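Field reference: "sequence" (input) and "structure" (output). Example, Divalent cation transporter:
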Amino acid sequence: MSVYGMLFIAWGAGLMALFGGFLAHVEGTANTIAKQELVHGITAFGGGILMAAVAFALVPEGMRELNAWQLTGLFAAGGVIFCVLDAWLQNNEGNVAQFMAMLLDFVPEAVSLGAVFAANPQMGVLLALFIAAQNFPEGFNAYRELRAAKLTTKTALWGLLGVSFFGPLSAIMGYWWLSEAPQITAMIMSFAAGGILYLVFQDIAPQARMRRHWTPSLGAVLGFIIGMLSKQLLG
């Protein structure tokens, strides 16, 4: 497969966030119990996928390539920096935790996608499919979050479209420059893992809980299973 094919696939995986956002736009406000359960379940599903990304993709790469001090420092730095950023945003009446977590998940995975394509294009296509499956619920949640932060529909959807372009940009970095620099890739992933873990526990998981309704949280279990199976199938 050519480099152009890889870039198109990486962009397509990113576009799934836009499609998820468009579905959230069509779905509208969750004004019934059933719709509220669905939205809370999708929020939990996205959180489960993010936790699986931390557990099976980001942290293992850091543990393989970095020493204990590097891994600890970068992971902690990711958590602290996104804690400060999250606090600043909320003090200014903004909350875009899901959007930030989606970026933190997508960018290092797209870097890995480029590196994988350099060695095994068939495996790269499979990885792109799993990234796309992750981006869809994350885009759904991010759109609702952006709208709640008083952004217009057009701005929120343009923002999700903008995210899609991080796919080919990150993939070409992984393909050309980072396939031979696993330590740099591991550093990016470790930093992202710390930020995602903070955002999941501080902002995303609390939004998934629904008082006197217990099934939405099973979405987190399903999301984690999807991430776990993707790791298992990718070896």
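The mean pLDDT is 83.
Residues 3-234 form one domain.
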